[in-house]
């Protein structure tokens, strides 16, 4: 199976990261995970104060043995090196601060350095920006990253799937991320004419 880097930055939508981790590990993939301090803060706001640690977030994943956690402060960790081979990277959710940093090649933490490595090694980089509305600066940063090979997937639901719950919407968004990486899944019903 594959080895994917997942970076969780400090934007709203931490539940999307949890669905991504669950989907990848349940499909048998290994995840190299890094979480920013602001992501942990956001998790404590969105999920409850007790979720402000990486260990508590990982308690939502059954197959934790398939996840390697890297400190976001460790710019010398494995995911910060191009010689550490992965099948791609997902930043979910991606704050516009992280988006801006990645667009200018700022590798000042493990998450941003891993994104820079992913781009320079021509591996798939999937960015799920969580902001609304987008400013012209945000759009320019996304366009720049798209032009150099990143795939931008804003977390926009589709109603043709007839979602019955918020979880259905979340699974659709994560399914689109996995589609971009060409990972087979059954997270949402496919369009049928």
Question: Would you summarize the structure shown here?
Answer:
The protein has helices spanning 14-26, 37-47, 54-58, 96-103, 110-120, 136-147, 166-180, and strands at 3-8, 30-35, 67-70, 89-94, 125-129, 150-152. The chain is an alpha/beta fold. The protein has a six-stranded parallel sheet with strand order 3-2-1-4-5-6, with helices on both faces.
Write the layout of secondary structure elements.
Blueprint: E1 3-8, H1 14-26, E2 30-35, H2 37-47, H3 54-58, E3 67-70, E4 89-94, H4 96-103, H5 110-120, E5 125-129, H6 136-147, E6 150-152, H7 166-180
Parallel strand pairs: 1-2, 1-4, 2-3, 4-5, 5-6
Structure description:
By secondary structure, the chain is α/β, with parallel strands linked by helices. The chain has one domain: Rossmann fold (3-Layer(aba) Sandwich), CATH 3.40.50.1950. The protein is 39% helix and 16% strand. The chain has helices at 14-26, 37-47, 54-58, 96-103, 110-120, 136-147, 166-180, and strands at residues 3-8, 30-35, 67-70, 89-94, 125-129, 150-152. Strands 3-2-1-4-5-6 form a six-stranded parallel sheet, with helices on both faces. Helix 1 links the parallel strand 1 and strand 2 (30-35). Helix 1 packs across helix 7 and helix 4 (96-103) crosses helix 6. It is globular. It starts with a strand and ends in a 13-residue tail after the last helix.
